[in-house]
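Entry 14. Ran structure prediction on the chain below.
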Amino acid sequence: MDLLSELKLRSISINECSKRTGIPYGALYPLVKGEKKIEKCEYATLKKLSDFFSCSIEDLFSTIEDFSVYWEDEKTADVIFSESQAQITRYTTNPVKQIFSKDTLSLFELGEILKWRCWDENRENIEKYLFKLGLTEFNPYKICRKTHGVMFQDKIWFKYKGENLSWDDVKCS
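Output, structure tokens:
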């Protein structure tokens, strides 16, 4: 989990997170900034973070999966993640088929783009939609992983490593 992106998505500062979790600011700051690996944390810290983010401790270790972007069955981009950014390889600049305007994005910027491919976070009964996906919180990365980022108004979708899918498999009918 990218702690900095998660805090930004929730509009919460590191200081506020420190106060709410009881994790000292000096211990939390290097975790959020990627200066200390989550694997080096004590169990008590992991438990406080998982409670704060309403996720399992295992989710704190999960990474965001690389994926490809398609327009129908035409690959238009690859998205490869590093610790703090996403590297985009675009195969077309056609604005109808492309959702990225640059080749490198922060994880926060990518999360904002992925939000466009999700339901409105404030939609009535959003909890029911999330529940149907097996989710307990609004997380654009996880929603797009489950829905492949498919929308009614265009033919863009995401394909993750190891998937053998085509447009016909994911399109809205």
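The chain has a mean pLDDT of 90. Will compare against last week's run tomorrow.
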